[in-house]
Write a structure and sequence with these properties.
Radius of gyration: 23 Å
Shape: globular
CATH superfamily: MFS general substrate transporter like domains
Mean pLDDT: 86
Structural class: mainly alpha
Largest sheet: none
Number of strands: 0
Distance between the termini: 34 Å
Strand content: under 5%
CATH architecture: Up-down Bundle
CATH class: Mainly Alpha
CATH topology: Growth Hormone, Chain: A
């Protein structure tokens, strides 16, 4: 029996086995979705240098990495919009299978890259599937669960992303940073083998497609919306133009801006939290090698890095683990927090907290012990608001536009965030900024996310909309936002 929104009791009371199954399959798709993105983060210090000439400057390699990250954002935007529209037109189930096939295949093919632009181009294609899967899965979860459970399950769904990052961390430690694999790669004169194996693992998520096709069915609300669209041409399914009409225009602007801020700060600041611990560990190794001396030449530093290559990689992966663990706690916490203080209040809390902790981590903290404590807090506050996208964006749009609107907001945000990453690369290559300075500057974007909340509608406690009244409030479960 399906639990109704107005029934008393705990949010999970009466949830059916099928509803839990939908959440599990959607979350697994998102886990592997994130793994496909994070495997590049875990390997970019090995992958990109192996695809360019040995004498390529470090700043140029940093630029290429940022170009690859930017390509990933643009690809995610393209796929999220295209597959989001497709999910409204042909269904959630079929589209989810297509997106998983897309990102699995192209991550695996990335292992064959021979030039830096091969890898960057393939990141674009991988991201098309990644962006599309999130839009479809988040819409389906919102449609299958009752009102009082949406914030909680939306947070759980998005928080499952940490397991994708954990998989990337494990690949970084046991494959990319594995000394036995490195030794074997040296014997066969193929030093790039470890990171290529990491990307080859990307083929595994394709097995999920079999489970999806056998176990899932289209949400009832989507089937009803399709019938209404067939009867009324004014209720077209998946019409992207409708996102910019009437009261939906403001909602689309708010959603896109929140996503752009979150993604720009994620790729421009959050992912580099791990590098702060790595840098502190390198300083510790240098001090050990040179009797407390830390001001060394480039040659001396390179000698230390070469000697402690495996140890440095493990410190980097520990930093990634700590940031991810804190981020996962933030994602899980966002649902209960926004259920208590509202969607707008929760977003404000995390944006201001993200700004504060980012500036502290990148500008004030340097020692290993203090970073071990600070990085989980940094991850909590710089990532937690991302769960809000899975909770909030589906609540902004009617069923016939839910996949389109959710996908557009999240992935148009990628388009806006991508140039910021290009600028970050140029800041380090041509303008002399350190990674820490560039990340600190980008973290100021959290202020923009806080300001746009002035325009954001509050959706706590409301049914999923199919109509928005003339004043922007909900006007019924099965109505249309742009019809009066």
């Amino acid at each position: 029996m399906r639990v109704e929104a107005d029934e008393p009791g705990r949010w999970y009371a009466g949830i059916t086995a099928y509803q839990w199954l939908v959440l599990l399959i959607a979350s697994l798709g998102w886990v592997f979705d994130v793994f496909e993105g994070q495997i590049f983060v875990a390997s970019m210090k090995e992958a990109m240098p192996s695809l360019v000439a040995e004498d390529t400057a470090e700043g140029t390699i940093a630029l290429y990495n940022n170009l690859a990250l930017g390509a990933f954002l643009l690809g995610g935007a393209t796929g999220g919009i295209v597959f989001g529209m497709m999910s409204d037109r042909i269904g959630r189930k079929r589209t989810m299978s297509l997106t998983i096939l897309f990102y699995s295949a192209f991550t695996c093919v990335s292992a064959l890259s021979q030039q830096w632009w091969h890898l960057a181009g393939l990141r674009f294609l991988v991201a098309m599937g990644v962006g599309g899967e999130w839009a479809v899965a988040s819409s389906m979860v919102a449609e299958v669960f009752p009102k009082r459970a949406r914030a909680h399950v939306g947070g759980i769904f998005h928080a499952s992303s940490v397991f994708g990052t954990y998989l990337a961390v494990l690949a970084g430690v046991f494959i990319i940073g594995n000394p036995q694999i490195h030794a074997y790669a040296s014997r066969i004169d193929m030093p790039s083998l470890p990171w290529r194996l990491g990307f080859a693992m990307g083929a595994l998520p394709a097995l999920l497609i079999l489970w999806i096709r056998r176990s899932l069915r289209e949400p009832e609300s989507w089937q009803q919306a399709r019938l209404r669209a067939q009867a009324d041409p004014g209720r077209q399914m998946g019409s992207i133009g409708d996102l910019f009409r009437g009261q939906l225009l403001r909602r689309t602007f708010v959603g896109v801006t929140l996503a752009a801020v979150g993604l720009a700060t994620f790729w421009g600041a959050h992912i580099y939290g791990k590098d702060r611990l790595e840098a502190a560990a390198v300083q510790r190794y240098i001090a050990q090698e040179y009797d407390g001396k830390v001001d060394v030449t480039a040659e001396e530093r390179e000698a230390v890095l070469s000697k402690h290559q495996v140890g440095v990689k493990r410190w980097e992966m520990l930093g990634m683990f700590l940031v991810t663990t804190g981020g996962g706690l933030g994602l899980v916490s966002f649902g209960p927090i926004c259920q208590r203080i509202g969607r707008r209040g929760a977003f404000l809390l995390f944006h201001l907290g993200g700004l504060a902790t980012a500036l502290i981590v990148f500008r004030a903290l340097t020692g290993v012990p203090v970073l071990l404590v600070a990085l989980p807090v940094f991850g909590f506050l710089t990532l937690g608001m991302h769960a809000g996208y899975a909770i909030y964006f589906p609540e902004l749009y009617p069923t016939r536009l839910r996949g389109t609107g959710t996908g557009f907001c999240f992935n148009a945000g990628r388009i806006l965030a991508a140039p910021i990453l290009f600028v970050s690369g140029w800041m380090q290559k041509d303008w002399g900024f350190t990674l820490e300075n560039a990340a600190s500057i980008l973290s100021v974007l959290f202020v923009l996310g806080a300001l746009v909340l002035l325009l954001a509608p509050e959706t706590r406690g409301q049914d999923l909309p199919d109509e928005v009244s003339s004043d922007g409030g909900p006007a019924g479960r099965d109505a249309d936002p742009n019809r009066t």
